[in-house]
Amino acid sequence: KYCGGCNPGYDRVELVEQLEKRLEGTAVFVSPDDEGVDLILAVEGCATACADLSPFEGKRIVVMTCPEDAERFVREYSCPAPADAGAGRAPPLPFEVSSRDILRGRKGA
To answer: Residue 29 and residue 49: Cα distance in Å, rounded?
Structure first.
């Protein structure tokens, strides 16, 4: 889910393209209305983070407001979750990711 882009501090589309390349073979970005979505990746252009995420209520949401958030996302979701990880933590990779903005867990992984 992208924000409206009224005051972006970085190229949001380029950032998502870089994420897709870095996670190639382990993740696929899919459309927001794709069935089985496990995680909403909200790519916001600035710290205001004004995108309306209410349609995704009840789903796990990761908000990115800068390239550093993307680095944290890659580090966190590239590592297996500890055995004692609580509910609400997104599953570790592998993910299916394509050129959109929603992640879902790969079937059979």
So the answer is: 20
**Nearest of 33, 41, 31 to residue 76 by alpha carbon:** 41
- C-beta separation of 10 from 45 below 8 A: yes
pTM over 0.85: no
What distances in angstroms separate CA 35 from CA 67, 70, 102, 103, one per listed residue? 28, 24, 11, 11
- Please report where in the chains the tokens 């209410």 appear, as a residue: 54
Structure tokens at 15: 């950032």
Query: What proportion of the chain, given as a percentage, has pLDDT over 90?
Result: 21
1 touches 51 (CB < 8 A): yes
Q: What angle do CA 98, 104, 108 make, to 5 degrees?
A: 105
- What the block records as the tokens of 69 is 């958030």
Q: What angle do CA 84, 89, 91 make, to 5 degrees?
A: 90
19: its two tokens: 């994420």
C-alpha torsion sign, points 52, 48, 64, 7: positive
